[in-house]
Amino acid sequence: MRKSANVTIHADKIRFPVSPTLYGLFFEEISHAGDGGIYAELIRNRSFEDTLVPDRCHVENCKLHSPAGWVSPFEHTDPIPGWYTQIPEGCEAEIKLDDALPLNETNPVSLRVEAASVPHGRVSVCNTGFWGIPVRSGETYNLSFYGKKADGYQGELEITLEDRSGNIYASGSVTLTSGEWRKYELTLESDGDDAEAILAFSTRSAGTFWLELVSLFPATTFLHRKNGLRPDLVGMLQQLKPSFLRFPGGCFVEGFSVETAYRWKKTIGDLSERTSHWTLWQYRTTNGLGYHEYLQMAEDMGLHMMFVVNCGLTCQGRPGEMIPMEDLSEWVQDMLDAIEYANGPVTGYWGSLRAKNGHPEPFGLKYLEIGNENFGPEYNLRYRVFYEAVKEKYPEIVTIWNTHWEVGTETKGLPVEIVDEHFYADNDFYQQYHDMYDHYDRSGPKIYVGEYAMIVDNKSGTLLGALSEAAFMTGMERNQDLVTMSSYAPLFANIHHTVWDPSLIYFDGTKVYGTPSFHIQKMFGEHRGEYVVDSHVATESRPAGLYGGLGVEEKALDRIQDLVVSNGSETLLRLNRLSGSQPQCREFHGTLLIGDPSWSQYDVSIKAILGSEGIRLRLLDRHLPWDKQNYLLWELDPDGESRLVRIVGWSRVKLAPNRKIAVREADWQHMQATIVDDTVKCFLNGELIHEYQSAPIPYLTSVSTLDRKAGELIIKLVNPSPYLLETEIHIHGAGTVPVQGIQTVLTSRNPKDANTIDRPESVSPKDSDFRCDDGVYPLPPYAAAILRIKI
Predict the structure, then answer these.
(1) Are 208 and 150 in contact (CB under 8 A)?
(2) When you count CB atoms within 10 A of the terminal residue's CB, does the N or C end of the chain come out lower?
(3) How far is 642 from 350, CA to CA, in rounded Å?
(4) Distance between CA 536 and CA 590 in Å, rounded?
(5) pLDDT beyond 70 at 302
(6) Model-level pTM?
(7) Half-sphere exposure (CA, 13 Å, Cβ side) for 249?
(8) CB atoms within 10 A of CB 481
(9) Which residues contact 409 (CB under 8 A, 6 or more apart)?
């Protein structure tokens, strides 16, 4: 089927220059993006600490319980993950963790190997790597480890890279010479290819020895740096033509307890001096990819650097812990010292330490984000302390504020340069709100869309997900005077341990592929232009579904009464008091879900006392799980500030201007909302407070930029619909311009098509010439096209 659309472009009406930093990278240690990913270390559990339980936490039935009550998986079927023994029949040996006489304070345990009897053959201690150690014929691998031996042990170890059947690819030997810890190094060259090799330490003599910090790196890393990065994964990032690197998280920075929060000082220096820690993404990080390595990565890729600093709050959604304000000075000083390490002179302490670690010249850290996805009064208090501290000492640093549960450019009276907004939503959200930034206040701070992805029913990273994101990206590009930075999230995932889907790039030990979203990011990053020009779209559309029941917080139930829901003269529900035992009510994780999620047209009224926490009334709530949640939220604070927003997935968009109403906390308020056709109205004590009209979802979104150097007009067209769009393209302000040039098109027959590790290019863009003699461009169904037209 076919639909029509119209794009009118005024090539001579320049709106503003493109933002040179619009597209960047957000790297978080999640899904083994670092350890077992871009960080080229091949040994899993190299310091034997993977089963250590974080301080103040405990484990029950393979579940980790945090001090604040958050529960997450802690499953280790292997007593020492990544390590096992090969013991021939007739031999006796065992391995165990040993916390006596450790290497140092930051490496509290080692591996004790007791070979009680080796009458023949060899006893081996083996490491499987991160789901296999990939080796290639002719490649060199650098091994290092710390070892010591007990009295009486002869001390010779055979060290091999081999397959699980014992076929050897590379071998060497080391003689342990002391009962004290010493470092040993060895170079191994493989004579075979194997994606799942193992590293084996073997002895043919009885006795006891210890291993610690066993590290194996390929000699070939990105730019051949020691303790370096996987070149193929860095290469994927370079294809995106990014402008900045945000690091190291994400929720990774926050942690779920004070002990699991990111502390950069524990991640620099020699590997033996670094402290590993358990992450909220269900594995332990070595911090081998530390603060210095992140700065080096950004510099090597020519990127601006953005460090996300913990502001004294752990992840508030898990739930969080707060550093008391009177104890915050240590965390503020950590931030200042991080800046000094990155940018300070070698004559200072932190600059001299940077030089000692191999980088005497300043790195040039430019951006500092204060917290991650933090929100509310406690965050605002801490933000001001951090902001004032950094501006007093380093006024040139550009600071970024979290708006996780704030909306738009409202900054609560705080000094803000850039705000970071995150969106994880469904297909309709990105298409319907593609124009969200068209309506933002230009007098406020700039916008950084720090994390976004279509996550609902998009586990594998589909074409439709990519096109939904692309529709939203056209809106970011149309508003580059305001939206100056953006980054997709998450960036990487190892296919063997994926805790969040989709990610932009998936990999195993030897292979890597980009999702369709990767190709959209690459297309948009390659075709930037220099100026955004005036353009307008006329397109057919489909209605956005407005339906759902109600919801209120369970903690507010004693402050709500006299609920009435009606549709015309029909009463759908009447409840004097609310509880989970009432008709059409059920409890769901602290929320009372009310009514029928298929309701579409109704009037609801309640009486409520605001109390000290206010009232949050959900409208048009589809009663879905958290990752798919979809509802309108009317928030009425105790001080009378009223907001109407929409929550979709982990996203929040402002639907109407905020209002401040004179109320008293202890008085009963009459809250009423009406849903008629596509319009929602909210009344407080009979006064209209908010009105929202739901926009239809357009079939076509577009943005146009001008590349003066190339003499080209760049037109981006996005069609997530099932219809071929016969798109009339009208170009004004450049003389008579034929609609012809070069096109880059991403499409596939099925919107659910995706790439895989074995079929990495199933959905990928194609370049070709095009010519439209009648000025009508046939945009395929489920497609994104970028047209470059000479003018």
Answers:
(1) yes
(2) N
(3) 47
(4) 45
(5) yes
(6) 0.97
(7) 29
(8) 15
(9) 419, 440, 441, 444, 445, 447
